[in-house]
Design goal:
The radius of gyration is 21 Å and the shape is globular. Helices cover about 55% and strands about 5% of the residues. The longest helix has 22 residues. The protein has a 5-stranded parallel β-sheet, sandwiched between helices. It is built from 16 helices and 5 strands. About 35% of the residues are buried. The chain is α/β, with parallel strands linked by helices. The chain has 2 domains: about 200 residues, 3-Layer(aba) Sandwich (Rossmann fold), CATH 3.40.50.300; about 100 residues, no CATH class. It comes from Bauldia litoralis. This is Sulfotransferase family protein.
Length: about 350
């Protein structure tokens, strides 16, 4: 039996892949594939956080999903780990699939040492004859521009240029993926570029099914519906940045209303890095990119970015910001009255 670990990386359509896998269990079963239910306690029962939470040390500092699952103490985490391991083994015995897919970006984000990845390999080796690691990677400029809206939704206070300058760790793909290669072996790691022209039928779900699982379906059958990670248009980004900074300066928690309002009202493509900013970002990652290309892409050119603007042209006029702020204030008052 083979295990296929899809570990992300962030901003490469992971949520869409998980949504499809969770909603098409019968189709997967026809091809001998299982997307286990065990460990899918969070993310609308789509993300499989159980495995990473069972590999991480039980004496760890409380992480976000520990709080979601109410794992407050070492004893809580040990009990969760034991329950997960028992349930996982039981599900494998009942289903007896040819292949098992586990999809969770947290594996890539939190298993950051050889010891942790080795612990994961030891667990998987007890259940599977073969393990494949699958990761998608996104061009640095595209990653930053896509991630910036998420930064603001989470209360971030950096402008786009400053945000880009602090993304080296997140974009050190070679450093992180070479760790997985060293533990599992070069033949066990598949890395694909998340670029629409390079994806099968220009769709990441279809690409995962075709290239990784050997399953071909009609594009209409792979529709994932509305994205859970929608971007914010420039006017909304500037507005939310101002709100975030105001609350940060006051030392107060920003109410969730502002995120909901801006995300709903100002959907659209966000700001783009200028040509100079994009060039600086790429130059700062040149060694990482070259090594990634050599080790995982046969030395071919990767991350060919579209031409960036010479200047940032999406900065809204003051009158637009004022009008948007007034509308948001009115909505905030209405929201407050409902509560």
């Amino acid at each position: 039996m083979e295990a296929i670990l899809h570990i992300g990386t962030p901003k490469t359509g992971t949520t869409s892949i998980q949504k499809f896998l969770a909603g098409n269990e019968a189709l997967l079963a026809e091809h001998g594939v299982l997307y286990p239910v065990t460990g899918r306690e969070v993310g609308k029962q789509r993300r499989q956080r159980g495995l990473v939470l069972s590999v991480l040390p039980v004496d760890r500092a409380g992480a976000g999903f520990d709080k979601v699952l109410n794992l407050k103490t070492t004893a809580d985490r040990e009990r969760y780990r034991q329950n997960f391991l028992e349930s996982f083994e039981a599900e494998m015995k009942v289903a007896t699939p040819d292949r098992v897919v586990i999809s969770d970006e947290a594996l890539y984000l939190f298993l950051s040492t050889e010891a942790l990845v080795g612990t994961l390999k030891a667990f998987l080796s007890r259940h599977f004859d073969r393990v494949r690691i699958v990761a998608y990677v996104r061009a640095p400029t595209s990653f930053v521009e896509s991630s910036y809206s998420t930064h603001l939704k989470m209360g971030g206070t950096r402008d786009l240029a400053d945000f880009a300058a602090h993304q080296r760790q997140a974009l050190s793909y070679w450093t992180k993926l070479s760790l997985w290669r060293d533990v599992f072996g070069a033949d066990a790691v598949t890395v694909r570029e998340f670029s629409r022209p390079l994806l099968h039928r220009e769709d990441v779900v279809l690409d995962f099914l075709h290239a990784i699982l050997g399953i071909d379906i009609a594009p209409s059958d792979a529709s994932g519906g509305k994205s859970a990670n929608t971007s914010i248009a420039p006017l909304g980004q500037h507005l939310l940045l101002a709100v975030n900074r105001r609350y940060a300066e006051a030392g107060e928690a920003r109410p969730g209303f502002y995120r909901r309002f801006v995300s709903r009202k100002f959907k659209g493509s966000g700001q783009r890095l200028t040509a100079d900013e994009a060039a600086r970002l790429t130059a700062s990652l040149r060694d990482e990119i070259d090594r990634l290309s050599a080790d995982f892409f046969g030395g071919r050119t990767i991350f060919e970015a579209p031409v960036a603007p010479a200047v940032r042209s999406e900065t809204p006029a003051a009158s637009e910001l004022v009008a948007a702020a007034i509308e948001m204030s009115a909505a905030a008052l209405k929201d407050g009255k409902k509560r």
